[in-house]
Each structure stands twice: as structure tokens, then as C-alpha cells.
């Protein structure tokens, strides 16, 4: 099973992937290194969106003043922390002067906060949020040492759970004060893991079918492709461009590269020379000590076409409509992310709105149209034959919907939601917060087994989930299954399914209609 580790990784060094370094040849003049920023957070139960502009990642030497800046002056990435729960992705690249840095700041602006609220229709509420007037400073422990000609790493953990305080103003409106709770720590690169697991998601900007580059551990690359991360858009509050970096995803001979789904094949073969630009995809891997992103796996989904209103919409499922056979025929989706951005296109789909997704059933016997294709981001066979399909879609899941969108007709009050005709739907790996309730099974390795879990998100209505783990599941802050307890809370990362008919998985009975989570990581909060 896949796993991701939480944090922001800043890598200062040669920048072999994307940038070249400056610096004087004089021994008395400090040199510059390249900085790669990786960003993530710890989640909060009912927050659907917490999005801000990141104007800088500041690094401060002992006694100041600040002289390290992780975000280029011509870039203002916009990050939705709720989309990277207990995970990390690349934020930006820049150059930083060599030296020792003991304090850090994450400079944010223009916050947007949306929560799940079942009293509303649709069940979402935008909450006015304020940031501190002065950016808080946090210690880097241990200090970050940037050496000319070398690569360094810095983890920054933005704790959304303890950073946002809700309150009611004098008029009775819900508001929020954001007091960032951030931890900075220096990372050490390993030979096989680099600076730690890092996920990327974006659309393909270019493809490289051959290269002479070699990773830090001597593994040759066989080619790669660039991903545009944090889809570019125009930040309406400031009018400034908001976009993330374009990152080269380097592939080795052992990288699992899966193409778009067309049928029942789990991981269709995808020769690099057939990879289409404009395709949306995910990659899991790490940044090595030379500054290369090394992909362990990469999954490409559909090719988008903004000119004909086709894009990918990512977010949680809010409601579903089923036919008599249990197949979902329509569902509502909260648009947390778009690839590429169509927020200000014409026609457009604003972020943090709800769209109505219409599916097309499989042909029986004569197809009325191409049927909607279903798959999941892991692209592996699951225990008990569990798979994502029209009966396995449920409220609370994180999915990516690829399809052509149609705005509602003008002059209709109230206006219906934008409709998306789904060509394909991919179940996404995501982190769910909640509490352990009972142990169902534990293997001798204390990792493989099953237990019940109740998510804290109101969207789940306190319904229990059956969680399955295996020998590859990562346990953080807890030794294993036998050590799990109702308190403290758990963060479980993985794929969430609805088992409509029920089955037996590894000897554990799953009743019909149960939610099942295949967990790649169990993180017990402290």
C-alpha cells in the first residue's frame, strides 16, 4: 500500500532538476543553493477548504535579519491545505544563501475557509477567516545548515487542527481566527528514501523520452515528464497570478507507470512516447540528495481540453443518487481543486462550489454512449476482490472526476449547479480523522489485520468504517494494531470504498453497505 509522510520539505543545493545555482568564485562571498519547498498539514474534521496564497517561506539566521526566501518574488502559489492532509507536495523552488538558519516563517495571505454544514443546501458554508497581522516566527530544530554545492532539507508541519479557532461574532455569524501552529525541523537524506515520501499531482506540461541523468544512488533515469503543480489561476482578492512549480518527474526502469483506464485493466501500459500533454496525473516518490524527483510510481488519468470545457474536478462526494441495482447515476461533488484551472475560464467553474456529476452506465447490450470508467489511484489488486465502481461510490470519498462541464441556464432561480458528464472517475487516496473503536483481527506482525473506526467528520454521520491494514502499512506514534486505543485520535490514510453487496476480506466479514478503508498509514495523534 502507498504511504505519504507529513511535512514541507525545503531543499537547498545545486538544483539539478530545474534550476542552476549562482554564486561568486570568491572564497569570501557566500554561494547560493536551490530551495525546493514541499508543503502539507494535519487535518481538521469538517474543514473542506483552507486555501491561502503563500507569498514566502522565510529562513532566518541567528540574530537575523532574514536572508533565505523559499518562494520566488514572481510567484505566489495558492495552496489548499485540506487537499494535502497528512501528506506533502512541492510548493516552489528558489535560491538561498549558504549559512545556518535557526528560525522560519510561512508567509500567507488571502485565506479562504469552507466547512461542511448539513443545515445548508448544499451542505457547505463559507466562513470569514483572518490571519495574524504579524507573521509568527518558529524555531528550526535542529538548525538548517545550507552548504554551497550540497543539498539540505527542512520539514515544515502546518497543523490545521490546532491553527484554526472558530467563534461567533456579534451578529451570530460563524468566523475563524487563524493562529498558525507550525513546526520546523531539518531533514537528513537517505540513500533510498531521499528526504522522505512526497506526492505530486498536476497536469503534464512536457514529456522527455530519454536522458543521461543519474539519481543520487547511481540509478539511471529512463526519461520523465514535467507536471504543473498547484494549477495556475488568478487570485481574485489580489489580482496576482497564483501557480505552483513545474516539476520534472524522473522515471527509472522500476517505476510503475500506469496509463489512463479504458476498461478492466488495472494498470494499462503507457510508453513514454505516447504520453499526452494536458493529461492529469499523480506521482509518488522522493527528492534525492542531488535534487532529483525520483518517482516510484506514476498514474496518468485523462487528457483535459479547456477549449471544449473538459477538466478534472477533485474533492469529496456530498450526496449520491442510486438506481435500483445500486449503481450511482448522479452525485454532487464539492470542487476543492481543478486540473487545469477553469475557475476564471469562459465558461467557468468556481472553486469551492458544488457540481452535479452525471454518470453513464455500462452498455447492456447496446451502448447509448461511452460508459463512465472507474478506477483508483493505487492501480493494484485489492484484498477480497474489492474494487471501485458504480456501486462502490459513497458520500465522504475523495474522487477525481474527468468530464465536460455545462453551466446552468441563465435566468433560472435558484440556479441549479453546473453539470459534469463523467468520462472517468478515480478514487483518490486521502486522510480521514477519527477514533479507533474495536480490534477485529491482528496478525503476528502486529500490522496486518482489521479494526473498526469512526470518522469525526459530520459528513459520515458517525457511521463506522472497517479498516484493513497489511505488512506494508506504516504506523506512526503507535507500535501496531494491538496498541491502538479509542484515545487519542487517529489519522488514517488510504482508499475508502462502499461495499454494496458485502464480502469476506482476509477472514473478516464485511456486511452489505459497509464502508471499507484500505489503510496505507495509521498516524496516532499525540
Question: Could you please describe the fold and organization of this structure?
Answer:
With 526 residues, this protein is mostly beta strands. It folds into 4 domains: 9-187, no CATH class; 197-303, OB fold (Dihydrolipoamide Acetyltransferase, E2P); 306-427, OB fold (Dihydrolipoamide Acetyltransferase, E2P) (Beta Barrel); 430-524, OB fold (Dihydrolipoamide Acetyltransferase, E2P). The protein is 0% helix and 50% strand. The chain has no helices and 36 strands. It has strands spanning 9-13, 32-39, 41-42, 47-60, 68-69, 78-80, 89-97, 99-116, 124-130, 138-146, 152-159, 164-168, 174-178, 182-187, 197-208, 223-229, 233-234, 241-242, 246-258, 279-287, 293-303, 310-322, 328-334, 337-339, 354-358, 373-376, 398-406, 418-427, 430-442, 449-455, 465-469, 474-476, 490-499, 503-505, 508-510, 514-524. Strands 4, 5, 6, 8, 9, 10, 12 and 13 form an 8-stranded mixed sheet that branches. Strands 1, 2, 3, 7, 11 and 14 form a 6-stranded mixed sheet that branches. A 5-stranded mixed β-barrel has the order 15-16-19-21-20. Strand 17 (233-234) and strand 18 (241-242) form a beta hairpin. The protein is globular. It starts with 8 loop residues before the first strand and ends with a strand. The model is unreliable at 1-26 and 234-240 (pLDDT under 50).
Amino acid at each position: 500500500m502507498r504511504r505519504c509522510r507529513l511535512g514541507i520539505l525545503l531543499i537547498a543545493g545545486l538544483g539539478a532538476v530545474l534550476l542552476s545555482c549562482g554564486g561568486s568564485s570568491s572564497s569570501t562571498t557566500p554561494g547560493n543553493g536551490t530551495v525546493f519547498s514541499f508543503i502539507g498539514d494535519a487535518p481538521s474534521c469538517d474543514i473542506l477548504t483552507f486555501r491561502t496564497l503563500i507569498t514566502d517561506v522565510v529562513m532566518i539566521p541567528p540574530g537575523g535579519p532574514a536572508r533565505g526566501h523559499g518562494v520566488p518574488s514572481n510567484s505566489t502559489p495558492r495552496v489548499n491545505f485540506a487537499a494535502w492532509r497528512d501528506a506533502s507536495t512541492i510548493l516552489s523552488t528558489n535560491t538561498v544563501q549558504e549559512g545556518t538558519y535557526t528560525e522560519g516563517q510561512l508567509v500567507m495571505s488571502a485565506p479562504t475557509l469552507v466547512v461542511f454544514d448539513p443545515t445548508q443546501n448544499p451542505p457547505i458554508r463559507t466562513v470569514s477567516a483572518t490571519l495574524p497581522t504579524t507573521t509568527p516566527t518558529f524555531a528550526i530544530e535542529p538548525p538548517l545548515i545550507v552548504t554551497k554545492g550540497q543539498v539540505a532539507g527542512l520539514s515544515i508541519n502546518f497543523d490545521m487542527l490546532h491553527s484554526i479557532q472558530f467563534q461567533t461574532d456579534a451578529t451570530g455569524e460563524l468566523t475563524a481566527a487563524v493562529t498558525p501552529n507550525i513546526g520546523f525541523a531539518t531533514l537528513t537524506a537517505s540513500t533510498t528514501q531521499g528526504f522522505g515520501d512526497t506526492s505530486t499531482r498536476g497536469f503534464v506540461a512536457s514529456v522527455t523520452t530519454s536522458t543521461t541523468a543519474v539519481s543520487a544512488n547511481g540509478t539511471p533515469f529512463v526519461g520523465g515528464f514535467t507536471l504543473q503543480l498547484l494549477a495556475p489561476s488568478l487570485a481574485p482578492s489580489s489580482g496576482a497570478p497564483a501557480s505552483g512549480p513545474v516539476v520534472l518527474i524522473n522515471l527509472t526502469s522500476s517505476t510503475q507507470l500506469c496509463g489512463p483506464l479504458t476498461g478492466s485493466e488495472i494498470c494499462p501500459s503507457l510508453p513514454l512516447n505516447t504520453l499526452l500533454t494536458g493529461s492529469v496525473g499523480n506521482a509518488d516518490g522522493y527528492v534525492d540528495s542531488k535534487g532529483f524527483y525520483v518517482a516510484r510510481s506514476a498514474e496518468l488519468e485523462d487528457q483535459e481540453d479547456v477549449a471544449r470545457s473538459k477538466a478534472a474536478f477533485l474533492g469529496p462526494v456530498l450526496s449520491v443518487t442510486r438506481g435500483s441495482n445500486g449503481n450511482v447515476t448522479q452525485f454532487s461533488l464539492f470542487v476543492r481543486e481543478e486540473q487545469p484551472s477553469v475557475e476564471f475560464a469562459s465558461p467557468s467553474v468556481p472553486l469551492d462550489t458544488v457540481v452535479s456529476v452525471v454518470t453513464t452506465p455500462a452498455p447492456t447490450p447496446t451502448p447509448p454512449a461511452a460508459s463512465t470508467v472507474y478506477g483508483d489511484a493505487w492501480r493494484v489488486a485489492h484484498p477480497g476482490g474489492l474494487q471501485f465502481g458504480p456501486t462502490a461510490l459513497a458520500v465522504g470519498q475523495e474522487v477525481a472526476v474527468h468530464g465536460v462541464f455545462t453551466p446552468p441556464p441563465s435566468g433560472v432561480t435558484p440556479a441549479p449547479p453546473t453539470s459534469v458528464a463523467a468520462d472517468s472517475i478515480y478514487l483518490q487516496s486521502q486522510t480521514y480523522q477519527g477514533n479507533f473503536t474495536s480490534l477485529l483481527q491482528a496478525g503476528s506482525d502486529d500490522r496486518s489485520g482489521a479494526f473498526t473506526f469512526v470518522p469525526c467528520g459530520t459528513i459520515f454521520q458517525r457511521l463506522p468504517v472497517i479498516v484493513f491494514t497489511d505488512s506494508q502499512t506504516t504506523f506512526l506514534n503507535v507500535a501496531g494494531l494491538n496498541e491502538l486505543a479509542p484515545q487519542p485520535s487517529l489519522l488514517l490514510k488510504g482508499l475508502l470504498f462502499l461495499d454494496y453487496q458485502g464480502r469476506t476480506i482476509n477472514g473478516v466479514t464485511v456486511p452489505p453497505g459497509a464502508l471499507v478503508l484500505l489503510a496505507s498509514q495509521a498516524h496516532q495523534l499525540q
